[in-house]
Amino acid sequence: MKDSPSVALVTGASSGIGWELARQLALQGWKVALVARRKERLEELAQKIAAAGGQTLVVPADVGQREQAERAYRMAREELGMPELIIANAGVGRPTLVEPAVNLDDVEEMIRTNLLGVIYTLSVAIPDMVARRRGHLVAISSLAGYRGLPGESAYCASKAAVNVYLDGLRIHLRGTGVRVTTVCPGFIKTPMTENNTFYMPGLLDASEAARRILRAIERGKKVYNFPWHVHLMVKLSRWVPDRLMQRFLSKYNEDARLSATRTNLSNDAK
Ligand SMILES: NC(=O)c1ccc[n+]([C@@H]2O[C@H](COP(=O)([O-])OP(=O)(O)OC[C@H]3O[C@@H](n4cnc5c(N)ncnc54)[C@H](OP(=O)(O)O)[C@@H]3O)[C@@H](O)[C@H]2O)c1
């Protein structure tokens, strides 16, 4: 447990990796602002944490809307105290199709949430952190950001952009006392991957992933890629010619189409 509680803000805390990050931080003694769109899920987590003796603030917000992301930070600062750790974790994963046409609504949502959402979430905290000469900015990106994959073009592009944005930010903030960590996980068992029908190498559960991520943050890692063997596979895949990638991933493409159909069906049902 921490001696005096510090304040963390975690986006995407209503599910998966974000839920576990928030839960484990709270159990370590952090006061945690829980940010996502589904208020009832955040309240459920807040209750579980309160039952274990932890302190949270529920902040419903869409991080893809700049005013909402900024408001979430200001609420956390007013209610809990100055945030020292911001984890921009909220993200969406949808296939990118080409037939019958590119699903641009999904593409826009991924760029807005996964890239702009991260930028909005982190940017609002920078002036306070620089003024205090302390703080830690973290984005949950993905190993998918190292290689464009068929059926995942927009998701991979959103994560590649996050990686490069944070590289720049890290160098820019050198000497200010503000640390910047990029986290690139492989496959993690969460609602985002639960409909995948293909083999997911190195699949980890969300609680183990959160444990590793928090350890990397504590150690002040600049970029944390895990698990190492999936990172190696992804890095090596950069040398694999397109025709072989297409052959290896033809099944993956089919799955992308299937899961897009599922997404569209469930959206239609809403
Ligand atoms: N699972 C994996 O294999 C994997 C691998 C690498 C990287 N990642 C990354 O890890 C992060 C967490 O993913 P996950 O696997 O935990 O997925 P998840 O279980 O689907 O959770 C996604 C979270 O993001 C939130 N979210 C989505 N859009 C949002 C928006 N516009 N505003 C605020 N919150 C939003 C969701 O909450 P609401 O719906 O309540 O808003 C939810 O809490 C993502 O950035 C993902 O890309 C995941």
TrEMBL record:
A GO cellular component entry from the record = membrane
Annotated Gene Ontology MF terms? oxidoreductase activity
Against Gene3D superfamilies, the record matches this protein to: NAD(P)-binding Rossmann-like Domain
SUPFAM superfamilies given in the database record: NAD(P)-binding Rossmann-fold domains (SSF51735)
Note whether Oxidoreductase occurs among the keywords: yes
Q: Where is the signal peptide?
A: none
Q: Which UniProt keywords apply?
A: Oxidoreductase
The Ketoreductase domain sits at 6-191
Could you name the domain of life of the organism this protein comes from? Bacteria
Query: What protein family does this chain belong to?
Result: Belongs to the short-chain dehydrogenases/reductases (SDR) family.
Q: What is this protein called?
A: SDR family NAD(P)-dependent oxidoreductase
Protein source organism? Thermogemmata fonticola
